[in-house]
Amino acid sequence: MQFTSLPFAAFLCGAAAVFFLLPPAARRLFLAAASLFVYCYPSPWQGAFLLLSVALTYGGARLLDRTEGPRTRRLLLAAGAVLNLAFLLFFKYYNFAAQNLAALCGLLGLAAPLPALALVAPVGISFYTFQSLGYLVDVYRRQTQPERNIVTYTLFVAFFPQVQAGPISRSTSLLPQLRSPAPAFDGKRVERSLLLAGWGLFKKLVIADRLAIFVGNVFDGHAGGTGAVAVAAVVLFAFQMYCDFSGYTAMALGIAGLFGYRLDPNFQLPYFSGTIPEFWRRWHMTLGSWFRDYLFYPILRNRRLNRLAKAARKTLPKTLANNIPVVVGLVVVWFCTGFWHGTGWNYIVWGLYHGLLIILSTLAGPWLKKRGQALGLPLEGRAFALFRVVRTFALVCVGYVFFRSASLGAALGLFARLWGGAGPAALWDGTLLQYGLDGADFAVALAGLAVLFAVEFAQRKRDLLAWVPAQRRLVRWAVYLVGILVLLVFGMYGEGYVEKPFLYFQF
Amino acid sequence: MTRQQVFERLNRVFQDVFDNEALAVGDATTAADVPGWDSLMHIRLMGAVEDEFDMVFDMKDVVSLQNVGEMADIIMAKGH
Predict the structure, then answer these.
(1) Closest residue in chain A to residue B47, using alpha carbons only
(2) Domain region containing B13
C-alpha cells in the first residue's frame, strides 16, 4: 500500500490511535499484527513469502546461536543465506536468466531451455531479504543476540514503515528498540515526525511526480527530445530520483517516529558530495553500509586474496599489487549493487560504471592530488570545492542515463540523442513545454526545487526538524498551515487520484 | 603493555596509514575526526594495526568499532 494513498492515511491514523490507547504491554503485538495486515491485505500470497522468510531466519539464527563448531556454524549460515537469496533470485531474476539463456541458445541454433514465467516479485523482497540476511550474519558474528520472541522478530522484518523499500535496518539499531518496552506518547515527537513525513510528501507529490511527466516523455516517448532537451531530462531525473526516494525515506522515518521508533537515515545531502565515493556514503546509506559490512569487508580481508596481492608485488608496481583485493572487492560489490537494482543489463552497466569511477578515484586520486599540488592549482579554495561538487553531480547524471533507460539499447540511444539536435535555446524558447508539462507546472516544479535547495542548505547548519517545533506557536502553525496548503494545492493528484508508486518499490 | 603504550604505537600506525604526521588519536577519536578515514582506509588501518600488534581482529570488531578507545580495549584484551 502506497504511503501517498488515502486508504494508507486512514490505516495510519487508526493504527496510531489504537497503538497509544492500548496498554504498553500489548502495543508490540498490535504493531506486528497491523504490519502484517497492511502487507498481506493486497496480496496474501506475498504475505506468505514474507512469513516464510521470517520463520527461516528466526529459526536459523536460534540454531546458529546454539551451535558451537565453526564448520557447522559456517554451513548453517551458508544454508540460511542460500535459502533467502534463492527466493529473491527466483522471483526477480528467473525471467532475466531465461531471456538471456534463450538469446544465447538462439545464437547457437538451439531451442530456449527455460520457459518465461508470469512472475510478480513480492513487494519489498530485495529489502527484507537483505535485512534478514544481515541479521543472520550479525548472529553468526556474535554481534547480536538472536531474538527469542517471534513477535519482536516479525516486527523487525515486517515493520510497515520500512518493509516496502527500506531503510534496511540493522539488528544492532532497530532490534534493541523493539525489545525495549513500547514507547509512550510524546506530543513533541509526534509533531517532529509529522513534519518529517510532510516534508517527504512535499518532495514526492510536488516535485518528483511533476518532474516524472517530463522525464518520462523524453526518456520513453516516441517524440524523445534531443540535445539540450535530453540533457534537461537527465538532470531533472536526478532531482526526480532524489525527491522520490528521499521523500519516501522521510515518510518512512516520520511514520516510524510517530510510533516512537527510530529508523536509520538513508540520505545526507548526496548531491553536495565532492567525489563519487563520498556520494555513495551519502546516498542510500543503508544499502551502501550493508554491502560494505557484509560483502566488501569480507572480500578485503580474504586471506587468499591478500596472499595473492603479496605475491604480485614481485611483478607488479607496489600500489597496484596492494590494491588487488580492493579492486576485486569493488568490482564484485558494484556488480551486485547494479544487479540488486533491477533485471536488465542497463542496471549492471550502471553499477559497474560507479565501481569503475570508485576504482579510478581510489587508484588515481592520491596521484592526481599530488600533481595538482605540484602544479600549484588552488585545491583548497571554494571555487575548487564547487567544481568538485558539479563534477560529481555530472558523473552521477551520466550514470542515470543507464539507470533510467528501459534497456541498455535505449540508454545508448539517449547518449546519441544528447549530442546535436536542440540547442541551448530550447531551454527557454518553449520547446521544453512540448513534453507533457506546461509552463505553470514547470514553474511549480522549479519553485519546489528552489525550496528544496534552500531547506537542505539550511539543514547543513541547523536541524530544522528540531528548530521548527521549538518556535513560538504562531510561527510553528504558520509553517504547518502553509505546508498543508502547498501539499493540497500543488500536490500532483490528477483526476480520480491514483497515487504513483515510488521508484524504489520496483527493486 | 600499558594503555598509554598502546596509544603511542597506535598513533604511529595512524600517522603512517593516513600519511599525516600531525595526527594524534585519543580514546574518543572516531572516523569522522580523521580526514580520509573511509571504508577502504578502515580495512587498511585494521590490517596495519594487526601487523603492529601481531593479532587478528574478529569481523564483529571490524564492523562495530565506534572509536579508537574501543580499538585499544580490544588490543589490550587480546593480551597486549
Answers:
(1) A301
(2) 3-78
Q: Yes or no: say if A476 and A469 are a contact pair by the CB < 8 Å rule.
A: yes
ipTM passes above 0.90: no
Quick: pLDDT tens for A91-125.
888 888 888 888 888 888 887 777 878 778 888 99
CB contacts, 8 Å: A281 with chain B: 38-39
Taking an 8 Å cut-off on Cβ atoms, the answer to whether B43 and A300 are in contact is yes
**Number of folded domains that form chain B:** 1
CATH of the domain at B33: 1.10.1200.10
Q: For residues A35 and A159, is the Cβ–Cβ distance under 8 A?
A: yes
The rounded distance, in Å, linking the Cα atoms of A251 and A347 is 26
B59:A300 CB<8 A:
no
B56 in reach of chain A (CB within 8 A) = no
pLDDT, tens digit, for every residue of A228-272? Answer: 888 999 999 999 999 999 999 999 999 999 999 999 999 999 999
Give the DSSP per-residue string, B2-57.
-HHHHHHHHHHHHHHHTT-TT----TT--GGGSTT--HHHHHHHHHHHHHHHT---
pLDDT tens digits, residue range A169-199? 999 999 999 999 888 889 889 999 999 999 9
B32 interfaces chain A, CB cutoff of 8 Å: no
Of A143, A298, A362, the CB nearest to B60: A143
> Cα(B19)–Cα(A101) distance, rounded to whole angstroms?
50
